[in-house]
Amino acid sequence: MSQYHKMKAASYVIVRNTQGEILLMRRANTGYMDGKFGLPSGHVEQNESFVAAAVRELREETGLKCTEEDMEHRLTLHRYQESGEHDYVDIFFEVTNWQGKPKNTEPHKCSELIWTKPVDSKHEMVDYLYNVFQEIEKGTRLFELVRGSNE
């Protein structure tokens, strides 16, 4: 009998304003890529769908409210290391409709929110995020990223 490999799963939400800017959050006090910008996101909980996790994380982290029908799948990312560490399936959604104004509802994990174009903040983003935006722009639906052993 073989043992199955387990991966972690996370949902991400792209919030785009009428000027085409994306809402980014500067990570703080998390122990992972603190000081870098990321999207509203989080782990998928047990018995939770990817889209339900995206709706929940958007509300928890920004105060924005939406429904599952407001989420449009943009990209599935499989990022992993050859060693098997940090093996993730990340699902990126773009929210097409929401209620409220974004606010930092988790100041213990986020130091600021900004609206920006990805190209303007690429050097300040979580390392794989700019690649994600490039792949979405190309229309890619599945992207696999092998990472170095020290990332």
What does this structure look like?
There is one protein chain. The protein has 151 residues and is of the alpha/beta class. The protein has one domain: Nucleoside Triphosphate Pyrophosphohydrolase (Alpha-Beta Complex), CATH 3.90.79. The protein contains 2 helices and 8 strands. A 5-stranded mixed sheet has the order 4-1-6-5-8. It has a 3-stranded antiparallel sheet with strand order 3-2-7, with no helix packed on it. The mean pLDDT is 92.
Features:
151 residues, alpha/beta, Nucleoside Triphosphate Pyrophosphohydrolase, five-stranded mixed β-sheet, three-stranded antiparallel β-sheet, 2 helices, 8 strands, 33% strand
Rg, Cα atoms, Å: 15 Å
Return the domain count. 1
Q: State the name of the first-level CATH class.
A: Alpha Beta
Might you state the CATH topology name? Nucleoside Triphosphate Pyrophosphohydrolase
CATH homology superfamily name: Nucleoside Triphosphate Pyrophosphohydrolase
Number of distinct helices:
2
Strand content: 25-35%
Q: How would a crystallographer describe the biggest sheet?
A: 5 strands, mixed
- Corresponding CATH architecture: Alpha-Beta Complex
**What is the general shape?**
globular
Average residue-wise pLDDT: 92
